Amino acid sequence: MRKLWVLLKLNFRAMLRAFSFQSGAAKSKGKAAGGLGALALMAFLSLYLSSAYSFLLTRMLAEQGAAELALPLMAVLACVVSLMFTVMAASGLVFGGRDNDIMLTLPVSAFTVVLGKVLALYLENLVFCGLWMLPTGAAYIAYAGLSAGQAALFCARLTAALPFLPLLPSALALLGGWLIAYASGRMRHKAAVGTIVSMALLGAVLVGSMQINRTLEMLLRDLGGVRRVLYTWLLPFGLLTDALTGAGPALGLPALGRYILLGLAPFLALVWAVGTQYKRILSRLAGHTLRGDYKLRGVKTSGAFAALLRKECRRYFGTTIYVLNTGFGAVMLLGAAVYALAARGQALPVVETLGGVRAVMPMALIAICAIQSTVNPACVSVSMEGKTLWLLKEAPVPPRALFGAKALLSLLVSAVPAAGCIALLWAGYAPAPQDALGMLALCVCFAGFTSVFGLAVNLLLPRMDCDNDAIIVKQSAASMVGVFGGMLAAGLGVPLWLVCGDVLGFAGFCALAAAVLLLCAAALWRWVCTRGAHILQRL
Amino acid sequence: MLTIEHFSKTYPGGKKAVDDLSLTVNAGEIMGFIGHNGAGKTTTLRCVAGILDFTEGEIAIGGHSVKTQPIAAKQITAFLPDNPDLYEFLTGIQYLAFIADLYGIEKEAREARIQKYADAFELTGALGSAIGSYSHGMKQKLAVISALMRAPKLLILDEPFVGLDPQAAFVLKGFLHELCAEGGAVIFSTHVLEVAEKLCDRIAIIQKGRLVRMGDTASIVGDESLEQVFLELAREGGEHA
To answer: Mean pLDDT, to the nearest integer, of A90-116?
Structure first.
């Protein structure tokens, strides 16, 4: 138990350090405050989203006398979102850690090692689920008309049940991470296989989460059916509902017990199962094929910049966790565009009721830019150099070229899918050519801006000492600020549109916004090449 | 080839790693840079290679200031760290091609040099495999090849013989002499004093960030061994402290 505690502290500290804005020995109060600010922002977003959904849903259900169903539904949502956040982290943290060699040499069982790592994920999920379920509980108390005593009892039950809610997404994340590692370990092109399997898993979770609206409709139409579902394949959530709302002398305690058992047993069983295979999985993952029959033939040549760009591409596409966390938005953009094209017949009447294609384009534009914000490899590209940074610092190339290669890759993986998305929308919905071209120009400029912005953010918030790529791309302060900063920039388009949209028209608005973005990108690029170069030298 | 004048390096937090160091390494010369752990050897070499920033003093390679003309200085330099972390997602040959591209080495020259050095270090057959699959020694050999392939005017090596098998260490010593014969210069740090004594034309000994002895190997060693000289200096340093 003491060893587990030590390992858990180590893993959790590694995760917390990733949130920190400080790197290495350098300390500053401002950066420490910034790290807390990033955590506060995450907490606020969770609370805000949960509050919005919880109060809306609970009110609708309360009108039909089924306020208690808001509890399992929001718990399902919490688990789905937790799973989305941690499935990739599980693959990286549990199976892809650079500390695997050390861990396997410790006089600790593989079960304890795996448990220590998974419990760190569990703690992350617990924080999220706690923040998520808090407004749900408040909404339930408000709309179910509980007395003060009943409300106090409900709070006590929620407090008792909450620690067991994240066990399910943590176990599923471990299973997903295991599958990804297993699949990629058996294939020749591990990174490509890992990326495809992970994309498929994430896609499935995303499609599932997009059924929430349909579930809500079903919920309101057939409350009896929903209750049946809760006691069949969503049994843990049905038991949770009973545990939180049960009446009678037992006060839902038997349901609470069964709910805890249903969460804890599969969790521990899965950790044990992975523990028994842990060394074998890691050995297979680490077992590269070393061949000794290479014959030196012609060696290709290229310029320094092309070499740097090629290296960035290989690093990016050769690291599953990197592609998934900073490139899934690109797949989403193309997927959404293909769907919009395929469902054109159903969508066009809706578009007409909203005022026609021209009226919908600003919304589509903001949506595309918001998704583009998540496609920003540049915001962790410096941190990803880690201990190999010496190679770039020693090379006789100016920092401008190093930064340029990183920014260009980021721009390409963001702008190309956005252009594809716009081309598909153009083919399906035939907007005015000048509007489509304006949209294209703006999205390309937005990609350029977010790339340079991401690079600047990473130079300000580098993490060169992480043991795990997953922590850098998923949880570092730079990745969060890079993505949310991009989203904020996309959001600023709304007031700009409201102010000058009518005067300029859509194409004119796009031209203005693109010009503003280009100016901002140019200013940031100048900073990156001057101050940023000094920061790089000090890293 | 290398001139270091009044160079000092202070780390954030106030620790002075190197204090007012001045030395020169001439063309055709191998200089050994020796000292205790934490004496400031690696810090100095990393500053010379342009990896670490510094504010005090001046470092010039082939007449190019590392501070004001870093690209020109790096173009004629190769640095080999004590524990080279390489891009594990590249194959050996991709890594060498990457380095050759950065240094603008012509196609014919790069092919000939890769062939020469990879064959000498018996690494040619493994060049098609990912660096991630290499052993520590193979990575060290690849890093050595990538350094020699540049035909540098100044070769900076930090503990170059750690991790190399005796055969590879022997081959490397031969190439260091060859580089110097062609007008290049070598500065390397080592804890293996016998190697330094046999290989180096000159030796610099650094203690607690300060240069305490520098000169021709023969004049420094005299009738003693380098090990005895080093230990005496260490004792004196301890007494003065």
So the answer is: 77
Q: Do B97 and A386 touch (CB under 8 A)?
A: no
The position carrying tokens 């599969």 is A266
Q: How far apart are CA B75 and CA B104, in angstroms?
A: 9
Q: What is the identity of the amino acid at B139?
A: K
Inter-chain CB proximity B96 and A299 less than 8 Å: yes
Single-letter residue type at A212:
I
Where exactly are the structural domains of chain B? 2-76+152-240, 85-151
Model pLDDT for residues B184-223, shown as the tens digit of each residue: 999 999 888 888 888 899 999 888 888 888 888 888 777 6
CATH class of B2-76+152-240: alpha beta
Q: Please, what is the Cα angle at A475 between A110 and B131, to 5 degrees?
A: 65
Contact B53 A390 (CB under 8 A): no
Contact A301 B74 (CB under 8 A): no
Q: Which of A296, A306, A394 sits opposite B79 (nearest CB)?
A: A394
Rounded to an integer, what distance in angstroms lies between the CA atom of residue B2 and that of residue B185?
A: 8
Separation of alpha carbons A167 and A119, rounded Å: 9
Predicted-complex ipTM score: 0.81
Taking the Cβ of residue B98 and every Cβ of chain A, the question of whether any pair is shorter than 8 Å is answered with yes
The DSSP symbol for A334 reads H
Considering only CB atoms, which chain B residues are within 8 Å of A311? 87, 90, 98
Mean pLDDT, rounded, for B157-164: 87
pLDDT in tens, B68-121: 888 899 999 999 988 888 888 888 999 999 999 988 898 889 999 999 999 999
Chain B, residues 148-187, CB within 8 A of chain A, namely none
**Alpha-carbon distance A268 to A290, whole Å?**
37
The answer to whether residue A27 neighbours chain B at the CB level (below 8 Å) is: no
Top-ranked range on mean pLDDT: pick from A4-13, A381-390, A490-499, B143-152: B143-152
Of A288, A304, A398, nearest to B101 by CB-CB distance is A304
